[in-house]
């Protein structure tokens, strides 16, 4: 399984908002520049994040976007599900009725377990965790110099 561009870029967008949390509204064009993602694509990604209640928009000449709550209370599962949809590896995990073999299918049990494990892992990582790690990596990079 591969995470799509929506999931990867959606996570980067949310991480950028988390890093700048508390600094006021953030313009998509600034995120686009910092993350090297097209402004147009971010415009498409922001809508499901807004609709899921993870991001708030501020209208007007001083408009932009902010996280709807603290980064510590938003986990990666919420972000990925907002932009990607279900985390289940196969459709029958969420909808067992689509397959007549669901009740006794060993493969479905495997896919369910893997989907649950991935879900639990993503739930355990918050935007604050990622932001702290990113800030640490950025600080380490600034400390390096050549002689």
Q: Could you characterize what this model shows?
A:
Helices cover 57% and strands 5% of the residues. The protein contains seven helices and two strands; from the N terminus they run αααββαααα. The chain starts with a helix and ends with a helix. The longest helix has 18 residues, at 106-123. Helix 1 packs across helix 2. The mean pLDDT is 90. Strand 1 (55-58) and strand 2 form a beta hairpin. The chain has 147 residues and is mainly alpha-helical. It has a single domain, classed as Orthogonal Bundle (Arc Repressor Mutant, subunit A). Strands 1-2 form a two-stranded antiparallel sheet.
Q: Largest beta sheet: what is the strand line-up?
A: 1-2
Main beta sheet: 2 strands, antiparallel
Class by SSE composition? mainly alpha
CATH-scheme architecture: Orthogonal Bundle
The tally of strands reads 2
Reading off the top of the CATH hierarchy, the class is best stated as Mainly Alpha
Walk me through the topology.
Blueprint lengths: L4 H15 L8 H8 L3 H13 L3 E4 L5 E4 L8 H9 L6 H4 L11 H18 L3 H17 L4
Antiparallel strand pairs: 1-2
Helix pairs in contact: 1-2, 1-3, 1-4, 1-7
Short description:
The protein has 147 residues and is mainly α. Helix content is 57%, strand content 5%. Strands 1-2 form a two-stranded antiparallel ribbon.
């Amino acid at each position: 399984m591969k995470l799509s561009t929506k999931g990867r870029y959606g996570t980067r967008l949310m991480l950028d908002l988390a890093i700048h949390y508390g600094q006021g509204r953030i313009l998509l064009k600034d995120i686009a520049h910092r993350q090297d993602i097209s402004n147009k694509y971010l415009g498409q990604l922001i809508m499901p994040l807004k609709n899921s209640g993870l991001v708030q928009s501020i209208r007007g000449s001083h408009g932009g976007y902010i996280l709807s709550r603290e980064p510590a209370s938003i986990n990666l599962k919420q972000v990925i599900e907002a932009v990607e949809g279900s985390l289940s590896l196969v459709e029958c995990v969420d909808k067992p009725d689509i397959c007549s073999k669901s009740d006794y299918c060993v493969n479905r049990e495997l896919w369910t377990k893997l989907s649950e494990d991935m879900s639990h892992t993503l739930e355990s990582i918050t935007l604050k965790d990622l932001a702290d790690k990113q800030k640490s990596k950025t600080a380490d990079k600034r400390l390096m110099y050549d002689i």
